[in-house]
Amino acid sequence: MPHQNVEHLQPDPHALRQLVAVSLLVHLLGVCILVAFSGGLNEISRDSYWYHYRGVIGAEQYALKTNDWSRWIDEGWREFIPLVYYLIGPNLLYILIVNAMLAAASATLLYRISLAVFCSSPVALASAYLFALFPSFVYYTCLPLKEAPAVFGILCIVWGVVGNRLKQSSPWLVWLLAGFAIIAALRVYLVIVLAGCVVICFLPLRLTATMGGIIRLFFCGVGLFVLAYFVVDFYNIEISDSEATMYYDFERVNQMRESMSRGGSRLFQRRSDAIFSDNLFDIGWKVLLGLTFFIFSVDPFKIGEGRQAAALPELLFFLYCIPYLFHGVVQAWKRMPQRILPVFLIGGAIVLVYSSTTTNAGTMTRWRCQAIPYLVMLVVYGAAVCRRGLLYQFLQKLNSRAS
Question: I need a labelling partner for 174 at 20 to 30 A (CA). Which of 20, 259, 308, 388 fits?
């Protein structure tokens, strides 16, 4: 099932139309449910009223031509909403429509990426639907938050890299530039990490499904890091002075970890415990703890709380899919190291950056939306190569319909 004839693997227009329709319908239903329970669009989340209020004020600045265009870097979402309010009108519904459309577009991009990488229509379709219907992704993209454009921007970068490597997307540079422009507007610090991943993907490496291939890739990443370090040192660049680099300053990272360690979803009882020390074992333990919470997002000692109880189905899903994820990673590297490299590097970078800097389970659940596409692809591919379980039975049904 995972490897069909590549010559015949073109995206199915009918399947894409259905995917878009389902995604939009689910978001429409999600918004209706949120409004019904909250009482209005501006109350569907804690940030909704603030975004609406900021949008009204910002729209007046656009009308008076007193807005600051430099804020589009890193603060682009806070500037986009006022621009929409200025052009169309002050209604949060327009922003939710944009998010729904971006979520549907992200699902179609995931379908294309998975189809190109795994060469399997059932795997691609199952990955796209599982991602489009994933509860936390649907929830956060039904809110006026920037998760939908962030997910879409990163997928644009992945699709651009995959298109270049496999020669399946002729305007790959357009996708790449569009993705980086979106990410620079939303979270500029990610541009450096993603640019490093893209550079490695573009290097003429002959990867093999052996330990030698992994070592070669590892030393390539280390070499790129060392080169960046020497450039910073040679030109006396103060990384804490730039919006794009300040997040890689050790003190800045500790400030972020300490500031996020608050509320009922904090990972550490005391803020001082969230800070990275100089002990490598302490750093490793806290990174491992963050990685665990990033994937599962549930504190087993707080299941009775509302948000933790709501995340329980996803916890059970990921626990069930751990064997699939393991087989997906191992078999994908064994069978297709060249094609899977962008998914591994960019997906892994997203997981590592967020899990190592966030100390709040609620924030992790929201930011995990950006990593879900890559986890889902590997899980579904793992089910295909394992050839057992409920997910594999679903893949068989998709395969029989496709044939």
Answer: 20
Strand partners, 266: 360
Q: Give the integer Cα–Cα distance in Å for 96 and 117.
A: 31
Q: Directed axis angle between helix 372-386 and helix 312-335, to 10°?
A: 70
Report whether 155 contacts 137 (CB < 8 A): no
- The whole-angstrom separation of Cα 395 and Cα 270 is 46
CA–CA gap between residue 352 and residue 193 (Å, rounded): 10
Query: H helices then E strands: how many in the chain?
Result: 18, 0
Nearest-angstrom CA–CA distance, 266 and 149: 26
Q: What is the DSSP letter of 1?
A: -
For helices 13-38 and 92-118, the axis angle rounded to 10 degrees is 140
Alpha helices in 167-188 (DSSP H): 172-186
153-183 pLDDT, tens digit per residue, is 999 999 999 988 877 656 899 999 999 999 9
pLDDT tens for 339-350 read: 999 999 999 999
pTM of the shown model = 0.90
